[in-house]
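If you are new to this repository, start here. Below is one unmodified record pulled from the training split, so you can see the exact layout before writing a loader.
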Amino acid sequence: MDRGRFGVPAGVRDWAVAVGVAGLLVGTGLSGESSTANSDLLGYALLAGGGLALAAARRAPLVVLAVTGLCAVGYQAAGFDVLAVSYLVAVYGAVRAGHRGLAVAASLALLFTLHLTALVFQGEPVREAFGRGGGVLELAWLIAAFAAGEAVRQAERRAEEAERTREETARRRADEERLRIARELHDSLTHQISVIKVQAEVAVHVARRLGEQVPEAMLAIQEAGREASRELRATLAALRDDDTTPPRGLDDLPELVQKSRTLGLDATLTIDGRQHDVPAAVDRTVYRIVQEALTNVARHADATTAAVRIDCRPDSLAIRVDDDGRATPAAAPLPGLGLLGMRERVTALGGRLRAEPRDGGGFTVRAELPVERTS
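And here is the target side for that same chain:
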């Protein structure tokens, strides 16, 4: 629930404003004299209703604008010469929500209708009051409400833009720091692992030349050294790819899937929906999720097929990668660094990720990334 500076829920604040305005209007009506006593009950109901309608101004600003305008006309026709405070608040809410043109059109129509109502339902003194400047005063109040709504709207937009810029800067700095640490770890580990690998291979080679039995531990060290070297090379390739310009994204997925086919994996790609321009961070993350998922399938899943599906929705991108590997719910594989990296990327963008075995066998990776269109 949206909360303000003092932790008060937005709904409570809306109702407090609505009740306050309704009380102000009814109190003003009680303090005056209506020209048609028989319609007092209807007039008070319209005064209260116009104020209470403001409780829904945040959810339906245009509907509230229309309701408060009709209530203002109604209680004016009933003989209550009360400033349309509820309508002014509704104008503020509509402009704050971005409906400037409709607010102006509705306000001009209301001013004309109020003048017409005064001429038809009220006596001569009221007509003279309108002619001396009552309409000018109402117009001034409307301009003030419009200006206040527009000022708050611009301030909120600037605050949102500043917050988004701060988040993007922090995310970029975090990515840069992670890349720097990863490169340093690679540089420091490559030499040591290479030494271990070479020494193990020499020991195995010498033992075989002498006709001696090679210890199982030495063979395990040799295989572990080879696997570690392969992992480091793959890590370095990924790190270097992160620095490419422009970065890889949705348009590069067909090439990525084709590379998986050359490794013996029957991979398919399906993209549904219309591809719009998306932020670079989302575009890059989609590629990384599919890349990591296919890499895991090729290395660990013992699968023959993989299906990649991208759903381009109006406000999000959904990614799904399924394989026919040996994973089952009863024997779920332990999550590795690849899945952890995917989860961190998705979470940083405000998305959701699920990676788990499927009931029918195989593994599935599903992610949903929110998209704020760049154009």
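Two things worth knowing about this chain: Residues 329 and 357 are 5 Å apart (CA to CA). The first strand starts at residue 266 and ends at 272.
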